[in-house]
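Q: Give me the 3D complex with magnesium ion.
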Amino acid sequence: MEFELDSPSSPLAAPQEPPQIRRLEECVVNRIAAGEVIQRPVSAVKELVENSLDAHSTSINVVVKDGGLKLIQVSDDGHGIRFEDLPILCERHTTSKLSTYEDLQTIKSMGFRGEALASMTHVAHVTVTTITKGQLHGYRVSYKDGVMEHQPKACAAVKGTQIMVENLFYNMVARKKTLQSTVDDYSKIVDVISRFAIHHTSVSFSCRKHGAVRADVHSVATSSRLDVIRSVYGPSVSCNLMKLETSDSDPVGSIFSMDGFISSSNYMAKKTTMVLFINDRLVECTALKRALEIVYAATLPKASKPFIYMSIQLPPEHVDVNVHPTKREVSLLNQERIIEKIQSVAESKLRSSNTSRVFPEQTLDPSQLSPFSSSKDSQTDSPPTASKSQKTPVNKIVRTDAMDPAGRLDAYLKAKPLEGLERNPSLTAVRSAVRLRRNPKETADLTSLQELIDDVERNCHSDLLDVVRHCTFIGMADEILALLQHGTHLYLANVVNLSKEIMYQQVLRRFAHFNAIQLSEPAPVSDLIMLALQEEDLNSESTDGDELKQNIAKLNSELLKEKMEMLEEYFGISINSEGYLSMLPVILDQHTPDMDRIPDFLLTLGNDIEWLDEKNCFQGIAAAIANFYAMHPPLLPNPSGDGMHFYKRKATDNRDDEGNTIEKADIQVEEKDEIDNDLISEAETAWAQREWSIQHVLFPSMRLFLKPPASMATNGTFVKVASLEKLYKVFERC
Ligand code: ADP
Ligand code: MG
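A: Here is the predicted complex, encoded as structure tokens.
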């Protein structure tokens, strides 16, 4: 179709004649405005629940049909609506909560604009049933476009108000269509009710689908917020929460008080849940959310996202509640200062809780050991148990200390030290405990072992030893190389080589004295070796038959079974009589190996060890363990690097092409580039975990234990890249 360029009504009309300005019809204005306030079903639910809360209800029940598009019904036991007010109840800008503009400064109610109900009547059919105190009966009346459709009818009613919103967006075809084609709003509604439930603990909430017997959110009024969190979000959340409080009363700085709960290091989630109330309003504050996410990312070994519930109270005149039509955002006086303060208490709380972190046992499921699967952590729901008690198997607990600021890049970025952050002495305790095991006396009689240890000492390069002892870790330069500063020199150091060497040396030092990593499910050695053989095949395109591989796998696992006593006693590797691997040694405290590498490790043990010569045998096993535990780049490509293309999924063409409308075709095109978010998040976790380990485990242990062999000076493990003095000279000239 062609545009009629000279038509006066065309938006592309020539500019000589300005188009006429006309007043929009009132119903159009109202509908446009309504569409802004009620953007989707969940916004209607939020407004209705806020009205119920404003009416001092103690019980609020929500019923939803078809994601809210067919029906939203909110019933409360609040003070009800006066009969005389019913005619104007749903007119725009009618409210019982605000009379002068100045009232906004001190307003405590959630509503104040008198727009919500009016908006709903412009985009849905609204029916109100209400009864006020002392009345014998209630009234029911329906509204359309702001006005009553008929006189209120007397009816039986229970205390409070029930508002029914039916056929939402019946007159906004485009909106309805987009909502119908996207995911059901019901989960958003459940989410909003859950949030209200954990904040308003003196109110009982329920939310269910129309016709469903069971509610999806059900909370009972109680005095304990943790109890409500448990009943709404489940024990896996409530058990892993820590109370957080802070306040400020500096009239020139900021005045606020905050209390809430934040998840501890034992909580695992892929997405942040941030439930924020400011002056009892459910709001969002992206800046605060980000600030807290940063704390978690910087403090925790796993890139787990937090659960946060926070209630902030400020003088009402410090909050502008009128910055968003749905009141979703508010703006605060001194927001930055408040965020900084909250961030710093959250950080110190998290750090102190993280000093005794319980690592879950590793689950090893051989069916998942494909080249690109990575080990899954089975996260226990229970809170950290007292690790000192005799009953707790010590071998299942690995201590972590994130307090060691040495060498942290972020330590240098911080302008000022955070308040209340003291150096925790537990790291020293862990270190000395480890040191005690450095020279196990009982095993000194094994001459071959002693010889291997002596070899390490003899080979040690004294200059590199000084670098290793006194270097500062600056950050990772790429996937393999870390940037270090030593005195005025910068070095690139290969973390794979370094970690392999330190693991090797630690195996020798801890010989026969290992703590254990227990596999929660023992893994069949023979199947794992088979996996490794098939994997080798993929790489070398060898054509050995499966039968041959089966035989090799069987022979190797038989061999390992034969050696199981020695492997267990000296190296903490436990293989039971059925040929299942059940235990691995702890080589560096706080570090667990990448379980995807078990098949390779077992194959090396089965194939490459010289069992007959004691010294060679010990050396071979130590090297195999070292290679297994070394901090290799994770098998999943780094999504933040070049690896992103790996996660782009091809369209799964399961639709019928012929019957497709253009819209559907569009959707398909989009799907071609669909990204596998689960895998990305798994990869991100693996990479973040590795970086954490390099910084907090590898480098601190290296400073203490590594005796760098002379070969590291020449084989590229350490490369001096610059001298700061020279760099400064260059800059001076600039
Ligand atoms: P606002 O909440 O901004 O005042 P609304 O359109 O949401 O505007 O509601 C208009 C008025 O209707 C409120 O001021 C209140 O007096 C009354 N109202 C609405 N819902 C309820 C309810 N559930 N219980 C009692 N009164 C209600
Ligand atoms: Mg309201």
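A quick observation: The longest helix spans residues 677-705.
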